[in-house]
Amino acid sequence: MKANRETKRLFVGGLGQSISEVDLQNQFSRFGEVSDVEIITRKDDQGNPQKVFAYINIRVAESDLRKCMSVLNNTKWKGGTLQIQIAKESFLHRLAREREEAQANNEKSVMSNTNLLEKMGMMDFHMKAVPGTEVPGHKNWVVSKFGRILPVLHLKNQHKRKISFVFLKPRPLFCSLTYGNIKYDPSKYCHNLKKIGEDFTNAIPISNLTWELEGGNDPMSKKRQGKFADIFSPPKKIIKMQKNQSSSLSLTMRPRPSRVKMETPHFPQQQITQEMPSDPVTLKSPRVPDSERQKLKSVFFQTSGLENTGNKNSMSKNDIDSEDELMIAREENLERTTWSSINEYDSFEIVRDDFKSDVHKLCSLTDLGNKNNVSFDSEDNVGDDSDDDSGDADDTAVNKNVGKIKKSTEFSQMEKSVCKKSSPKNRKKCELSDHCTKVQKSKTNEELAISHGGKSLSNSSSSEDAASQSESAESEVGDYNAMMDNCLQVTLSLADLGHLAGSDLKAPKDPESHGWETTSQCDRASKSHGTSVGRHRSRQCIYPEEIVASLLEEENALGKQKPKENNLKLKFQAFRGVGCLYGKQPVRKSLEENIASSNVHKNEHSLKLEDPTSMSMEKGCPNRNGSSSKLTPFQGSKKADDPNCIQPQNRQFTCKTQNHKVRSPSGSEEGSRNPISNLLPLKDNAVRLGAETSGRGFDEDSGHETTKTGEDSEKSSDLTSHVVPEYSPEVSRMNTHGSKPDFPLSLNSPPDVSAKDKHAEDNQKRLSALEARQKAKEIQKKLVHNALANLDGPPEDKPTHIIFGSDSEIETEETSILEQSQLGEKPIKEFLSRASGILFGSSEEESDPEEDRNRFRIKPQFEGRAGQKLMNLQSRFGTDDRFRMDSRFLESDSEEEREEVNEKKTEKEELAAEKLKALNIVQSILQTNLSNSASKGSVAAKKFKDIIHYDPTRHDHANYEKKRDDKPKESKAKRKKKREEAEKLPTVSKEMYYNITTDLKEIFQTTKDNSEQKDVPHVDCEEEKAKEGHVSAAPVTGAEQPSGFTFSFFDSDTKDVKEETYAVEIVKSGKTAWHVAPRFQDSSSEEEDVTEETDDRKSSLGEVSLPAKETTRFFFFSNSDERLLGSDLFWRGMGSNISRNSWEARTNNLRMDCRKKHKDAKRRVKPK
Amino acid sequence: MRPLTEEETRVMFEKIAKYIGENLQLLVDRPDGTYCFRLHNDRVYYVSEKILKLAANISGDKLVSLGTCFGKFTKTHKFRLHITALDYLAPYAKYKVWIKPGAEQSFLYGNHVLKSGLGRITENTSQYQGVVVYSMADIPLGFGVAAKSTQDCRRVDPMAIVVFHQADIGEYVRHEETLT
């Protein structure tokens, strides 16, 4: 029994409060040994016991337990209902028991594993545990699946959530993150863990991990990478520029690359035009960029010229990196320039790219030997071509870049010239600013800089306008005028500059150059032509200056000539001084300034002087056309500007041989331009020389002939020798002209680019105006002529009026004269006048009826508008013969009136002309042919006609009937088929048909209209118009009949048809009959053919009609035979029905086939 | 009021030709009457001959508008198309863009058309080609300029601009005072 007994824990609920443990023990001891009794009392808030229950540990047998349960359960005991249940093991007991068990297990496992451990050696133990169980004795170590033991790490992350990193014992690293309080059991998730790497030693540092996805260069991938290149790149640039200490330079740098990029392609016009607006910086801050551009230009030139590899490298980078280097390079260049100015001989190689002034010097130096110049030219050419002479061979790309840059710079210069044109002030200002910057860098002339700065400030407002204008490349006449107004100011500023420069002149490092300058000035003053090399050089350097000076002088002459001469001289000095001080760049710029001013002057003068300039302009324009076919020279000023911008590029990129010629004439015509071109190292030396020569020659000839200069320039494009002789005379002229008022004119003739364009425009306008005037004159002449022609009649009559002899003549004359008065006045007056006019009234009665008739007829004199006016005039003077008016009095008026009439007429014409013009423009834009449009228009018109609703009752719709005629023509095919079929049929039937028809016709003719109505059904329903034709034709045929031949209805019918189709043509029946006769005899089959022909081609009607007549003649029956009356219906029906049916069937088949084929073809075409 | 100069005509035609190409001829050379362009207050009007005659009776300073305004010349003498020209240009448009209903409103408020709103586009549309913008119901909504060619449109991401806004019929409300 005892063996069966087990200690059980019983729950006893529903106890009374008074029950004690002893009671319980006693109560339960009946069933077994009660070892422990625990009474638990549950109390509410107030402490009142609510529940009392107890746990009893009892050692009891199963049966006893059951007995106990059954006896005591639900029994009332001491005030409570007992509820007895088996309770769970007490946790304490359980704990104890579990520990015991665990210990037992441990011992067991140890015992069992010892073997394994011994085998493995390495491992401490291996647990055969369910995954997830803790490793005993090790906190936070769990057994994972596959029996591996994993540590659990608890880490706190920023969000105060737990991150558990689980590291497997074996090397592989597992990283897994768990958030929140959830306990992460690595054993359950170990499958999710991934092996990152075997080696920690080789592990890449985090910084090197790939944080971006690598993609292509396409914008999408870039965006994914967080690069918004399009948006952000410009700001970056700006920032970098700002980094550069010379912000202005950097600013300029930025536009440049873009420009270069723009120009790298083949430089189509559009790009160039677009290019200007594409520079946002220039737009926003036009002033700085311009100046910068110039500087850059110079820098580039120098770098290219120097061919220093370092510089070139910097150039090659061509980007932000190179900016600093460029700065350095520029400084170097400055030094260089100074150095070059000192050592002019050394600068030979350098010069070519450096800039023009050097070239000039060299040219002057090599005046004696032309060869040197040539070689120089070749070098320049090479430079332009961006090929390496010195064999740097660093990068051809670099060189190209340089070349491009040069070009771009040149282009910019051209642009500047344009700007100058539009607003010379701005340009000047830019240049001034350049000067300022350079001065500051060289730190020699501070005063100048200050003065320039002030000027620039003053000019700043205008610069913006200039920029905008340059951007739009539109320089209007208004602007031009404005420029003109500004000219004076500009000159003044120049003068100031000159003063300043003069003051600074003493500072220059180059005494020699200074001396030369002074000497040159002296020479000028003394009008002695210096042949010495040095002098030449100086002159060349000064040359544009001289022009400017002359221009200035000229302008001064307009205002005050003499006082400013001094200023001018000072200016020269100043310019030269600047040049010496700052190397050739400054000189060049000063020259440019001069040019600008000269341009301005020229513009002014060009306006004043129409004829010579216009001639030159005309010449220039064709030349330009030759150079660039794209450019239409005679367009608006706007366009003209564009060409200017583009032209230089074109020249550069197009054949240089062309360039020479083109440029030289242009240069000659545009005096200012030549200097510019000269200054630009980019251009070929040869070209330059030519330009110079042309310019000089022009200067020479300008006084005499402008046109000649162009020719000269062309001739002397390559000749440097020309330069010398021309040069000296020019100088002399300059000197002479200083005092002369004529000189300005000559100088004016060389206009700058803008001037040229404007001149071209002006000239064109003038020419057109002249033409218009001539035309008007011609018209007037014509009018006069006409008027006189009208006059001729009456005046001739007048003399007759006095003659007494012939009554009739007098009568008519009289009446004509009198009628003038009659129309205006009363018959009485007329009578009086007549009486006065005619001495012998005997013939009056005879002529009266005629007179009366004529009286109300308007006289030829009074016909028309002019006549009316005349009449009015006449009425003013009454009937007095002495004041008889004739058209002579009206001449002027009549003209006016005619003009009025013309105007009225022209209103529509104008519209038409406008339309035409518009169409022309459209075609030019669309680049389609004129004829195209015309044809289109006509097509449209035709289409439109088609839409018109045809009303057969309307006569004016008769012209639309032509198309109806087409239908029978269309039926040609039908007819042919018909014919073919008919051929099968007995020919007789056809003959019969025709005969019958003829008879029918007769019937119609005899029976009047009713028969016609009868006839209508016979006629093809398609030919409704035929009806009308019949009606009209019937009488005609009737008339013909008597003339001779009997003739068939068919004949007349065909004729009718013809008349319908060609309303104009009237066919004579007799004629046709005569012709037809022979043909008809041939055969019946031919007859058919003929008839068909008649149907098919109406033109052959005559022939057709004849056979019918013949038939009538030849056959037994005359057309009037009564036996045949009414038979026509029968025959006709038969033949026509058969043929028609067959024809219809065929046509249908054909149509179907045709459609099919068409569809097939379409299908075939579509997939392609 | 005056006829356009050749230069103006050229500028204007060039602009219009961007949208309708050679169909421009049909505007100039109309079979149903004479139509011409007139400049008034820097605006270009497309006027029938008849109306032109009538308008000639009104002094220039009193004349507000005549015919249909096609656009205006800016101070820089560029031609800007007005939405009022839509009725004349839409039928002849060579390159069209249809926008989805969801993007319609955005466009009509003056915004560019994003690729997400692009419903359909004429093939072979080149970049910067003038296009007429239609709703999916084929109602012309305005003018635009293709920011991307048709091919590029396929590749570009959905938020990229496909058509630059030029003019839309919303301007009838928004710019009522300037549309004459």
- How much beta of chain A, percentage-wise? under 5%
Strand content of chain B: 25-35%
Order of helices and strands of chain B: EHHEEHEEHEHEEEEHEH
* N/C terminus separation of chain A: 106 Å
Q: Shape of chain B, please?
A: elongated
pLDDT averaged over residues of chain A: 52
Structural Rg of chain A: 58 Å
Strand segment tally of chain A: 8
CATH H level of the domain at 1-91 in chain A: which superfamily?
Answer: RRM (RNA recognition motif) domain
Q: Termini separation of chain B (Å)?
A: 14 Å
| CATH topological fold name of the largest domain in chain B | Nuclear Transport Factor 2, Chain: A
Largest interface: A-B, 32 and 27 residues
- Oligomeric state: heterodimer
Q: Which stretches of chain B are poorly predicted, pLDDT < 50 over at least 5 residues?
A: none
- Proportion of residues in helical segments of chain B: 25-40%
CATH architecture of the domain at 1-91 in chain A: 2-Layer Sandwich
Largest sheet of chain B: 6 strands, mixed
Task: Describe, in short, the structure shown.
The complex is a heterodimer of chains A (1168) and B (180). Chain A has 1168 residues and is mainly α. Helix content of chain A is 70%, strand content 4%.
